[in-house]
Amino acid sequence: MSTSSPDHVSSAPAGPSRAPLAALLVALVAFAVYLPALLHGGLVYDDVELIELNPRIRESFSLREAFTKPFWDVVDTEAEGRQPFYRPGVSLFFHLGWRLSGDQAWGYHLLNVLLHVAASLGVAALARRFAGGAVLAGAAAGLLFAVQPTHHEAVAWVAGIVDPSAVAPMVWAAVLLLRARESGKLLDYAGAFALHVAALLCKETAFLFVPLCLLGVRALPRAAEPRKLATALVLLLPPLALYAVRASVFDSSLAGFGYAVVDVHAGMEATRKLLFPLELLGHFVLLVLWPGAWAPMHVLRPGAGLGDPTVQLHLLLGGLFVASVLVMVCSRELGQRRSVHLFALLGFALGLAPALVSPQSLGQFPVSERYLYLPLALVCISLGVLVSRGLARGGLARALAFLLLLLVLPLGVLAAQRAGIYRDEATFYAAALEREPNAAVAHIGMGHVHLQRASELAASDPRAALRELDQANERFLSVTSLYTNAELYFVGFVERVRSGIGQFGALLQKATMIEDPLYREEDLKIAEQARDLVREELERFRKSLIDEAPEKAALVAEALEWPEWLVNQGILAALRGRREEARGFFLKALQRDRDHFEAQLALAQIAEQQSAELNEAPALVRTWTEVVDRARAALAISPGQARALLLLSRGLVRRAVAREATGSKTPETLAAIRTDIEDADRTLILARRLHPEEPSFPFELANLHALFRNWDNVANLFFDAVRLSQWRLDYVEQLLEVLQKSGRSEDILRLVFTLQERDPQSIPAHELLIKYLLIYGHAERAAQEIEALRKLDPEGWVASYFEAMLAEGLTGEMSRAYTSYETALARAQPYDGPKERSMRKRAAQFFVKIARATYAAAADPQREMSSEDRGRIIDQAARYYRDGVLVLSALQQPIEWLEYGELLLRAQLWCDAQKAFEAGLAEEVEAEKRQRLEQGKALAEARCKP
User: Fold this and answer.
1) Separation CA 659–CA 543 (nearest Å)
2) d(CA 587, CA 589)
3) Residues above pLDDT 70, as percent of the chain
């Protein structure tokens, strides 16, 4: 006759009719707590690489590849089996998530939450068995497990699915195995076997199923096992088979278990290194006992000594945990070792065994809260039994049981709040930095968030974009101070290099946005300095590792071949105008990672830039074909990406135009043009569906429809682009040009007035308004707006330029126009952008025009004036012409040297005239003009006396 433990409640089922209601309550609570992740959760941190940038979970998903390659090899072709993870089940879940929601995050979060519900129900079912069928024990255990705040990482983070996907089948396999132990049904054994295999395919932790089962059985009353062989097969065959598969996949007898991702002990003093497992155990205990200790990233500080208060606290808690286990083992009352509570404590430590025994295989965060998912399942089973017994006994035990149940609500609130940090990367990294300011990974991640924001704001709000880039730069720079001795800590080196690469990228992006050549050159120089510093850091660190860690030294040497580094090098070369060098870097990046989205896109952009330098239609067709092919390759890597869709649609439209320009009317050419236009139309319609708020797509669709000259339809599409872009200026300008072609002057004026009213302080909006007021002859209102612009930009040249245009074109005040042009030229002198060049050209043309008019007035024989006045007017004409010539020369525009020289002769400016005739003779001119130039030169030369 078996003896039941004191912890064990009667084995008779209690309240079976209430069991479904209890299970429903557990399921609803588990689902409700993580509803914020389902409704608002995004893709953050590892999710980006595992989901967003992973083409292998989409249409190209291959079961064979998932089952024959290490987990990270499927994501990162550079991993080459160095990561010790084999998780085909997780890859399958990711593919299922993509089937559910594509590039949207809710499908992946739904799977996580459903697996958590299943795990919570499994914990409830196990607790009920340990409590002899008590429904209350199961409900309490399931509820406490469902609301644990430490589960936020495992359930609300998509990449955390590895834990619930392994634990849910593990607990249900245990339930079936225990049921089979009583019933002897083969179906229960088969179910337990299948679930054991499923757990092993999702996470390496499932290898603990066998020792946990053996411990769990010790906590139950002895019972006959009708099919011991079946039990042995369920427990032993799956791990042995999976070990053989892993050994084949990793091509090693260690089956991937012996690889160290990070040397977490590097730089740690000897005594702390010896006590490190106890310290880690204490850290996990603290996370369970004290909610305030949570953080998305727990930074390991190997340089801290045993005198550090945090290290001491962790060691104390670890020691108390071990002591409590020893007390329970040695207790006479628990001498039979059938206590579910002892099982929970031993199982807690066993569930953390991978982190405690081999933290170097877990990466730079050996303390992560998702590692508590399995251990807490066992603890909650124990707590469920405790609640059931306490409520049955009364007194203090009942009070403690009620207290435990009352914790469900505040714990659930905490869990829901923590689930909210996975909304997007900005929220996630901000929370990580708030909880752990020394988390270098979070600084780098937030730096990339600022980079992404800058990219999105670059066209619509350049000033805000530059502010984001400065913040990104600050984040990357802050990493350097976190690791002062990178030689002692390999992770520190990696993060310093990553931050250097990020800083390099931020400076490059800033340089692409700045039009002023002086500031742009300054940023490019700083970017080159950042690049050189990274190179020096790499070389210095490599040398320090050659003797003691040659394998790591080899990894360091490979760092300059990282695709991200190569792509940034290519961007720098492109900004420097070294296009072929840039192409070489991008192609090399693709050799290292054939699925590098940014490299493919950069090559497409280089081809697009080259098209601007080509005039021949066949060459343009070839170049735009490369743009199309590269954009399609980028979309194959990351389907639905807005930038790639934009390049593809633009490439198709421009290729169709280039094909038409070849003049070929063959059926093949006409069919190709029609196909390009249809493909572009389909691409843009798809892009608008995927990115309904992105203004670039109606903008490009407008350009496509412009081929058919349906200007009203084009204008409507441009209106959409303007509205979606929050009145982006270049989109407004395109719309205004289309409206001009349609002759819709009222719409144009209404549009520019609206633009100015939306932002009365906007200088570009005022400029556009004045431009069209001048075009349509509204002189009085134009004068008012010019004065308003002068107040907004008192040092600028644009107001003077518009004043000159107003005086020249509408009021006829030529003297005022001349003075205003002179002011505009003087103020624009430091700048040399397209607007400045256009202004200078117009000013020069005005100067020449007014010089001719002034000279004509002086030379008019019908006009009565003294010879002195006539000479003064001729001198003025020469001055006007001289000003025009100076500007035209700077712009390398053609000059009428003969006319200018003859005018200088009449003004008796002999030496200036001689130079003008010499300049004319230096050009190729017809014989008659050359003869007049030579005559003028001879006359001027005879009288020029320098």
Assistant:
1) 56
2) 5
3) 78
